[in-house]
């Protein structure tokens, strides 16, 4: 689905954002991308979305070499992508329904297709009863689900989630990633940039760590052996993670969202519904993140995962010796 071959990116001011990156993300994978401030995560996403071009190397997206693609061809590549942002990017004077429908209107979808598709997508994210509400009337978790619905409405083959849980309560983050995981289980590739340690450890997904423009860890080879800790609830996961000691956990969290199994079974739609909002993608990747918190935790995520795997392997070896 995505392949980087010896990719490097240097900005005009001389900053080398990425250096000789080689990686491959297969169709249907779910990948967490972690790293500290200035590590190169934002540049990585911009290269995937064709917002930036590499100085050297080759980038393949869904079988197409986008390294030197003409500007006029970029919208056709972006039709394969749905993007979820940290700050929601909703239009306040539009209802929930219209925010989602907008992604179809700007690409010329018919009114009939919109009336059929939008209620269905809102049902998938559990917001059919909020269709006539405005973003300012919603909670943070609800607004992010609207953003996810907008990303899904044109049936993309890939979801790019750029810090999608950064502006919602920690426990509610699990609700969003649960939904992304369910969508991924239906075959959609998911790339998610995050700094939330609990999420990365709780969900058994591939982890790529970027540091100073280079990939320093990739857990692709340990998917069959690494078993992350499992928690009975999002609140328990947050409380069990020292990274969240700053939160008092006194907030009253919403009930975790459970997707309707029957609706999720219908996630794959006919080819004629696969249209995508090209205009929404222009200049919509944040230039910077809230890095103070990220710096405290992100650099050690992949190392901790590797350490846990190593300890687990030593225990298995000890049992074999005893036998």
List the helices and strands and how they pair.
Layout: E1 2-10, E2 16-25, E3 30-34, H1 41-48, E4 56-61, E5 64-65, H2 74-78, E6 81-85, H3 96-105, H4 111-124, H5 140-152, E7 158-162, H6 170-185, E8 189-193, H7 197-202, E9 206-211, E10 214-218, H8 234-239, H9 261-264, H10 291-297, H11 301-322
Parallel strand pairs: 3-8, 3-9, 6-7, 7-8
Antiparallel strand pairs: 1-2, 1-4, 4-5, 9-10
Helix pairs in contact: 3-4, 3-5, 4-5
Characterise the protein shown here.
By secondary structure, the chain is α/β, with parallel strands linked by helices. The chain is built from eleven helices and ten strands. It has helices at residues 41-48, 74-78, 96-105, 111-124, 140-152, 170-185, 197-202, 234-239, 261-264, 291-297, 301-322; strands at residues 2-10, 16-25, 30-34, 56-61, 64-65, 81-85, 158-162, 189-193, 206-211, 214-218. Strands 6-7-8-3-9-10 form a six-stranded mixed β-sheet, with helices on both faces. A four-stranded antiparallel β-sheet has the order 2-1-4-5, covered by helices on one side. A hairpin with a 5-residue loop joins strand 1 (2-10) and strand 2. Helix 3 runs parallel beside helix 5 (140-152) and helix 4 (111-124) packs across helix 5. The longest helix has 22 residues, at 301-322.
């Amino acid at each position: 689905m995505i392949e980087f071959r010896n990719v490097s990116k240097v900005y005009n001011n001389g900053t080398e954002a990425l250096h000789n990156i080689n990686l491959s993300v297969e169709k249907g994978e779910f990948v967490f991308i972690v790293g500290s401030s200035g590590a190169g995560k934002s540049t990585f996403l911009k290269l995937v979305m064709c917002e930036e071009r590499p100085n050297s190397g080759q980038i393949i997206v869904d079988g197409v070499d986008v390294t030197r693609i003409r500007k006029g061809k970029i919208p056709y590549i972006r039709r394969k992508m749905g993007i979820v942002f940290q700050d929601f990017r909703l239009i306040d004077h539009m209802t929930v329904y219209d925010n989602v429908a907008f992604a179809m209107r700007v690409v010329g979808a018919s009114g009939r297709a919109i009336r059929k598709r939008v209620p269905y997508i809102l049902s998938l994210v559990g917001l059919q009863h909020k269709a006539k509400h405005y973003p300012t009337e919603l909670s943070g978790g609800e607004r992010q689900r609207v953003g996810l619905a907008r990303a899904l409405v044109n049936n993309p083959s890939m979801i790019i989630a750029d810090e999608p849980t950064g502006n919602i309560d920690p426990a509610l983050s699990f609700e969003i990633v649960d939904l992304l995981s369910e969508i991924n289980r239906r075959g959609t590739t998911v790339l998610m940039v995050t700094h939330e340690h609990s999420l990365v450890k709780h969900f058994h997904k591939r982890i790529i760590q970027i540091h100073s423009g280079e990939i320093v860890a990739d857990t692709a080879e340990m998917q069959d052996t690494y078993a992350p800790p499992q928690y009975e609830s999002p609140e328990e996961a947050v409380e069990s993670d020292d990274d969240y000691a700053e939160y008092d956990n006194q907030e009253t969290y919403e009930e975790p969202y459970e997707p309707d199994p029957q609706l999720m079974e219908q996630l794959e739609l006919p080819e004629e519904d696969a249209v995508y909002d090209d205009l929404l993608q222009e200049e919509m990747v944040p230039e910077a993140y809230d890095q103070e918190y990220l710096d405290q935790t992100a650099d050690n995520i992949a190392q901790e995962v590797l350490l846990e795997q190593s300890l687990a392997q030593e225990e298995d070896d000890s049992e074999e010796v005893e036998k």
